[in-house]
Write a structure and sequence with these properties.
2 copies of one chain form a homodimer. The first copy, chain A, has 280 residues and is α/β, with parallel strands linked by helices. The first copy, chain A, contains 10 helices and 10 strands.
């Protein structure tokens, strides 16, 4: 496995592969890797000849009062895990390499970025689409793999790729969960033991909602109440949002239909966790 | 010369050239070609093996009360002129091909897009950067050539390419003028004979400003007044802006220094003409 820290170096490393017709798979991450990230490497490997992972804690997707500074980082561990899993190249740039001054250009996917997480994190998705556009132009992958835990992000990136005609195929990987159901997240490390013990109830509640839909429930308010009641069983939880939305346009639905999913964001103490479940 | 109307078709046509190492030069236009556009084809040819021209009157760069509907179009003539000049491929898409519904994603270059033409045309440059990003992703050129008549556009595109790491080299072509000095523009066709006879005074005034700087004048207000007085000699002119700005960041300068240029936008009747001149 090779690690490059500059745009020029990773481009130079990938260029000969591209010209010899090798298919490049790409897994963008913010590091502090867990099995969710590594499962995306498996998917990338299955769809390409060479797998590039980026590890970059992207400042433009953090709001002013968010956790940019304390976001967990451990490059030595990431390097080991990525290599073990068969990653061929890591792109691990400094902030100054990605955002040299002056920097003025942003990619914005309107409408989709204003709902769900976009309400409490108004500039988050602008940061995500901007850095992903940059990374696509740097790596020029044939396929790129994103996880479904960040469902809104995945939908926004698919829309961006369609709208801006990026020559990249997007593949989504399923949510990877801890044995007790908690969706894997680098931020889970923030949780106190007490918060951690309560966290699986978010997933359990989403399962109860899905089961209710399986039993025939189609009323959005009923399903939403079921989730809200479920999460309120968590003494430490503060709900950011619970939304039942269309899987393509992220707009609220009137009735549960195929493709509808439930998305939640919940604070456990200071830690904001997100999860989602396709309902039908 | 080959003409393609769909994204899939132009991509399929260019793919074998790319894989055999041919360098692709790109000249994006809105058509109604004049010698300014064709001079960019010459430059593209000098820097590449294959020249692609796009002809697309991009709706997202026109404001609601602008001239999108009446913008001059003559594809048969454009096709002939482009072919004669040695263009290899024309990409000539429909609006629905470039902007299928739903379309949500825009590329915005902040700050630079808010000054000069950005004041009276607040969404213009967002449309330009968005369509150029799309075209870069569709054509994937090695070099792209833009004219210096649209100086602000050229500076914004260079910034966008740097900020988003497009793997494209930008080359700027000099302003091509009519024998009497009027900068060539597809919009010149709008001018009545009387307006057309007055139009060269814009260029003459910019030359007078440059000559004053050559003689040692460094005061911005003096130079600006000189241009304003000059243009006000035109009975049919209405000044949109006269600005003396830095050639890199487009901000107003306190004193004329190397790289400073004068940019003007003037209405002659209903027709808005722009021109610019490097002062030092």
């Amino acid at each position: 496995m090779e690690v490059y820290r500059t745009i020029a170096a990773i481009r130079a490393a990938l260029q000969p592969l591209r010209t010899t017709g090798k298919k490049i798979g790409f897994v963008p991450t913010m590091g502090y890797l867990h099995e969710g990230h590594l499962s995306l490497v498996d998917i990338a490997k299955a769809h390409s000849d060479v797998v590039v992972m980026s590890i970059f804690v992207n400042p433009t997707q953090f709001g002013p009062n968010e956790d940019l500074e304390r976001y967990p980082r451990d490059f030595a561990r990431d390097e080991h895990l990525a290599c073990e899993r068969g990653t061929d190249f890591i792109f691990y740039p400094e902030v100054a390499e990605m955002y040299p001054e002056p920097f003025f250009t942003y990619v914005v996917t309107e409408k989709l970025s204003k709902v769900l997480c976009g309400v409490s994190r108004p500039t988050h998705f602008r940061g995500v689409t901007t850095v992903v556009a940059k990374l696509f132009n740097i790596i020029q992958p044939d396929v790129a793999v994103f996880g479904r835990k960040d469902a809104q992000q995945a939908i926004i990136i698919q829309q961006m790729v369609r709208d801006l005609n990026f020559p990249v195929k997007i593949i989504l990987g399923p949510i990877v969960r801890e044995p007790d159901g908690l969706a894997m997240s680098s931020r889970n490390v923030y949780l106190t033991p007490e918060e951690r013990s309560q966290a699986p109830l978010i997933f359990q509640t989403l399962q109860e909602a899905r089961q209710a839909v399986e039993r025939g429930e189609r009323n959005v308010a009923t399903i939403r109440n079921l989730i809200e009641t479920g999460i309120k069983r968590l003494p430490l939880a503060r709900i950011d949002y619970i939304e039942i939305v269309d899987g393509e346009n992220l707009q609220r639905v009137d009735e549960i239909h195929p493709g509808t999913f439930a998305a939640v964001a919940v604070y456990l103490g200071k830690t904001r966790l997100i999860d989602n479940q396709v309902l039908m």
